[in-house]
Design brief:
The structure is a single chain. The chain has 285 residues and is mostly helical. The protein has one domain. 84% of the residues lie in helices and 0% in strands. It has helices spanning 3-7, 11-43, 48-51, 54-64, 69-93, 100-138, 141-147, 152-190, 195-205, 208-234, 239-277. The radius of gyration is 24 Å and the shape is elongated.
Length: 285
């Protein structure tokens, strides 16, 4: 028997490997269950009579969309003003301050507006959806619905998913509009730049596909928030601590999903933009 065999028990090597394998397998199982849940949620849209009641979809649209407008508008306006303050001196140093509006507006409509609306919604609404559904799971209301022959995915998850899918693009319009107005106020009123040049270079740099790119991203962001929030609520652990943990996981997972989707969609949409317009319009041309 070697010295290693004498001093190190066999389980000291095998147990960590077994634990690692168990964790990997559990992650694979969880991903499979999440994929099935996402599929059932999306397919559940076709069962119109189960989710289309006014008190189901209407209440979710009001809670997710309408009540989020003030905070989205305020944050969007301040983001536009901050970008104007941060960028004006740099553009002024090269005598191109009138072109800053195009850069701000392009950044807002393609990236900042959709991501801002999605992140705010994930924090404000996504966590609330997870907590609500998690509480229903802990108190066995979901099991009671199944016992009565009702599908909780179609009744609870689908209207919330659709509300997120619809609300994020609409909130993106609010975020984009307020961001553009905020930047315009600072550049033209605070720094006295020429409003005509501001509008001219903005129209020159921002095209219709840039605006559509932001809306396409917003649709994917909304869908991700809806599915992740509902999934975390449906699978939360028992007790108040389980609901709190699920709420935290919901925001973190939604935020990661938003960032990953933003990266992937930015690459795909930029390639499509290049094919359509044959290149990128320079702000200095």
């Amino acid at each position: 028997m070697s010295i290693f065999e004498q001093t190190v028990p066999a389980n000291a090597v095998t147990v960590p490997i077994a634990q690692l394998g168990s964790r990997i397998l559990q992650r694979v199982v969880n991903f499979g269950q999440f994929s099935r849940f996402a599929y059932e949620t999306i397919i559940g849209i076709r069962h119109f009579n189960q989710w289309s009641r006014r008190e189901r979809i209407g209440r979710q649209l009001f809670f997710i969309g309408t009540t989020s407008v003030p905070v989205i508008a305020i944050v969007g306006a301040f983001i536009g003003m901050i970008l104007a303050f941060e960028g004006f001196r740099q553009f002024q140093a090269i005598g191109q301050e009138s072109r800053l509006g195009g850069v701000i507006n392009l950044s807002v409509v393609k990236q900042i507006g959709p991501v801002l609306a999605a992140v705010m919604l994930a924090g404000r609404v996504g966590c609330a959806l997870t907590a609500e559904l998690g509480s229903m799971r802990v108190t066995e209301q979901l099991d009671a619905m199944r016992a009565m022959g009702s599908d909780p995915v179609r009744v609870l998850a689908v209207p919330r998913f659709l509300a997120c899918l619809i609300s994020v693009p609409l909130l993106t319009i609010v975020s984009n509009g307020c961001g553009v107005i905020g930047g315009w106020l600072i550049i033209t009123k605070f720094y006295d730049a020429d409003p005509a040049l501001y509008g001219r270079f903005s129209a020159q740099l921002v095209n219709w596909f840039d605006i559509m790119s932001g809306f396409i991203k917003a649709v994917f962001f909304g869908g991700a928030i809806g599915i992740v929030s509902c999934w975390k609520g449906f699978t939360c652990k028992p007790g108040a601590a389980g609901v709190g943990e699920a709420t935290t996981d919901s925001f973190v997972t939604s935020f990661i999903a938003i960032i990953v989707l933003s990266l992937v969609l930015a690459k795909l949409l930029n390639d499509i933009d290049f094919v359509i317009f044959g290149g990128v319009q320079s702000v200095f041309s």
